[in-house]
Amino acid sequence: MVLYDRFGRPVTNLRISLTQDCNFRCFFCHREGQRFNVRNEMTPEEIERLVRIASRLGIKKVKLTGGEPTVRSDILEIVKRIKPYVADLSMTTNGSRLKELAKPLAKAGLDRVNVSLHSLRRDVYKQITGVDMLETVLEGIEEAVKYLSPVKLNMTVMKGLNEGEIWDMVNFAAKTGTILQLIELEAPKEMTGTAFFRKYFYPLKPVERELEKRALETRERRMHRRKKYFIPTDYGIAEVEVVRAMHNTVFCANCTRLRVTSNGMFKTCLLRNDDLIDFLTAMRNGASDAEIAEIFKKAVLMREPYWR
Ligand SMILES: Nc1nc2c(ncn2[C@@H]2O[C@H](COP(=O)(O)OP(=O)(O)OP(=O)(O)O)[C@@H](O)[C@H]2O)c(=O)[nH]1
Ligand SMILES: C[S@@+](CC[C@H](N)C(=O)[O-])C[C@H]1O[C@@H](n2cnc3c(N)ncnc32)[C@H](O)[C@@H]1O
Ligand code: SF4
Ligand code: SF4
């Protein structure tokens, strides 16, 4: 069974924010669209129950995110509890704790990991993330490659900061056996005119054209119809994926994910701010699985493509 929203989009992925806490201070962070600082995090048991119910409604993939998911001391327990219900369990992390966690995470059932790496230059890395931890993260990536596959590197590209490093990152991905994801800076409509956004926004469409030219092969993913480019380098072939959400109607028309905030609400879209549906209160007030499933269905029906 798979649920479809009013726009004919199947909902097969759940993106769960485990916490709003983070040990980094990236100045551009959208915190997965969770705008208010809240505590009240879901417990491992509550997360497991949610995923069990969602898996019966067609959820096959779960992404753990945040904030920084690895700052939760019960992260291994969470992974262990969820894995039996989903085919693909992944995490997006800043990589700061991967050196010690990659192996135990894999053992607990994590299938793969995306690690944010916005620069290979120590000064630029610090400028972007607010922390001097490039070496630690590089060691974490090295460890992750041993136990998790694939390892993707998330590079959010920003004008005046790291746009000059794109091709170095392509080489680095080939060298380390990782997949590079180039992410366009994103923000909700009301923020796109701000001085902040205009200063840092670096459009990735021209970069895609250059990738297209250099690629030996191009493929398209089902989700968001994202393009994947296979680029020859001195270190072998690099796989490069482009995440270009802004003003992209094709991206939204092929969005298959429902989000969950760290305080137990369904959130239908990263960029919307009027789309939260609380299920945690219902859980804590003794709602049955069938009642939680109804709340899930209601959230699916609220989904709308953001850019259309
Ligand atoms: N607006 C929007 N941005 C997205 C969406 N998915 C990913 N992004 C952007 O891309 C960033 C990186 O996404 P990841 O957490 O690495 O996950 P992913 O690449 O989408 O998922 P996988 O390819 O399955 O690993 C997100 O934090 C967003 O900035 C989406 O559905 N909508
Ligand atoms: C919000 S973070 C959460 C997971 C983890 N803390 C990390 O940084 O990987 C998820 C991803 O979103 C990206 N991101 C954050 N704010 C963004 C923005 N405004 N535009 C584009 N990507 C953004 C980050 O670079 C990171 O790759
Ligand atoms: S590490 Fe992730 S959650 Fe933390 S500030 Fe950076 S992008 Fe945001
Ligand atoms: S509808 Fe568009 S902007 Fe919203 S989460 Fe899906 S892809 Fe992102």
From TrEMBL:
Residues binding [4Fe-4S] cluster 1: 22, 26, 29
Cited CDD domains: Radical_SAM (cd01335), Twitch_MoaA (cd21117)
Annotated binding of S-adenosyl-L-methionine, by residue: 67, 116, 191
Names of the cofactor(s): [4Fe-4S] cluster
Residues the entry annotates as binding GTP: 15, 63, 92, 152, 257-259
Enzyme class: lyase
Biological processes per GO annotation: Mo-molybdopterin cofactor biosynthetic process
Record function comment: Catalyzes the cyclization of GTP to (8S)-3',8-cyclo-7,8-dihydroguanosine 5'-triphosphate.
PANTHER family in UniProt: MOLYBDENUM COFACTOR BIOSYNTHESIS PROTEIN 1, MOLYBDOPTERIN COFACTOR SYNTHESIS PROTEIN A
This protein's name: Probable GTP 3',8-cyclase
Organism (species): Thermococcus gorgonarius
